[in-house]
Amino acid sequence: MASLSTISAKPFATSRTTHALHQIGNNGGHVFVLRALRQFPGLTTIHDIGLFYLYELEQPGMDAMLAEMAHSAPLLAPRFGQHWKRLGIKTKANYALFDMQRELLARSSGVVVHSLFAKAKLAAIYGEAATRHVSVIPHFAPPPVEMAGQQQAREWLGLPQDSFIVTTSGFATNAKRFDWLMQGLKQVLAQGIELRWIHAGEERAEEYNLSAELERFPLLRQRAEITGYVDEATLNAHVSACDVLVNLRFPSVGESSGSLARAFSAGRCCLVTDTASYRELPREAVVHLPLMSPVPSLVAALVALYRDPALLRAIGENARRFAETTLSLETVGRQYRDAIEAAAEIPLERPGLQPQPRRAARPPCLTLNGSGVTDRGEVARLLRKQQGRCQVLLKFKDMHDLARASREQAPLLGNLLPEHVRLVDTRILSGSAPDGRGEALLPPEAAGACGILLHLDIAGEAA
């Protein structure tokens, strides 16, 4: 592995000596990174633009999730939030539609993503101002010398030297489109081409039962192997041993692929879906499969590569050159050095180094004209930046006005409160002078008011 002195041509220009660097992805192993970012802001590298699963693991309850969903897709969140909270309905669409990146962008002094697609998506959702500190730095590839040759890797794994091996890797998920792959491999075998498929990775049966799906393809099943979890050395060997690495994605959320970077360094030919960040890979270094015809394109590509070993080697060599230049540790390291220096110039408070603020004795009270409120978006805008306990006073002209609104917008509070806001208590205020018994419990804004005083508990900032 290259040392820092190798990848950095000059020392850091900033006078600061401490830099918080966070690497975050969409799995349980990154929950502690998200929590550390909240305490120690810094430069954050986002490997997965969709973090719904990560937040689902990290958040203690549903309400905080609903608050973040409202930032990701404000127009969709109310309906999807209702379905989830009130009906218990949550589908795979939630993971694709709600990227949950607002907090990372706000808490980071600098952000790194691995593709122009990822940066453009963040800017489209959160705006140019919120993504001004986002840099695009490609996912590095390990030095080619760290990847074994094909013959050596096959000897180490006990694989035959004369087999045409197609490899996939990593966790088996729906988005990796094993359905397309198995259908395509079935058709290739039907043409009399002998091949072997190895999936070097772990199954998540609750998400995608790869073994069960493979049983539907008996001819392919005889030529397939699912290794289960493998360590890094074994994964590298499987990547080096293959003839073709297949890396399909749909839907893609701009994620990066470490296995793909390994394959480039090993000089292997890779097949990718022509979508999202994969479209940015050089056309001469990978084979792009059209999204509208993935299976026929996959079959045609594999047959052509099997019958033309020179073409297979040429694409692999182009991939290796891409790894040695654009994706090299030296190139990526220089870009990271610049990003770290830029992030160090942006002042952000580090809560982890500050004493915890004392909670106010009385929660804030916000006022809203109840007669003019027609949807929960108005209430959400009022509650923006509010967390924890607060009060909202819905003011009405008189009790007749309150009764009219309750009748015309029934159920009034059910239609007005965002899904991530929990109603703790309500109090109807008639507008008459208080009798003194509950006066001490009322905020000053409620003195002599007619309306509804809501005591709320807000799990996260409103959209």
UniProtKB/TrEMBL annotation:
<dbReference type="GO" id="GO:0009103">
    <property type="term" value="P:lipopolysaccharide biosynthetic process"/>
</dbReference>
<dbReference type="GO" id="GO:0016757">
    <property type="term" value="F:glycosyltransferase activity"/>
</dbReference>
<protein>
    <submittedName>
        <fullName>Glycosyltransferase family 4 protein</fullName>
    </submittedName>
</protein>
<keyword id="KW-0808">Transferase</keyword>
<dbReference type="Pfam" id="PF13692">
    <property type="entry name" value="Glyco_trans_1_4"/>
</dbReference>
